[in-house]
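Here is one chain, start to finish.
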Amino acid sequence: MHQDYFVYILASKMNGTLYIGCASDLIKRVYEHKNKHTQGFTSKYNVTRLVYFEKYEDRISAFHREKQMKKWKRDWKLELIENSNPRWDDLYYELL
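Its structure:
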């Protein structure tokens, strides 16, 4: 059975605090962030808006992309988001 993996960026608001993560079930993972199921960075800073994601066919590729993006300068991350989602819409609701 084929399993897709996702690298995603959450934001607290437009140009706000950012979080980069990786998950096999993007809808479930973002739901957990939105409902603060785990204590940590995203719940502390209310980082719950899905503003960007990429899909990968294997876990290794997604994991490497996540690590790469986490090393980027903030400006690069903002440019990535704004090129595909200029209004910083919450893409979670489009996935449902």
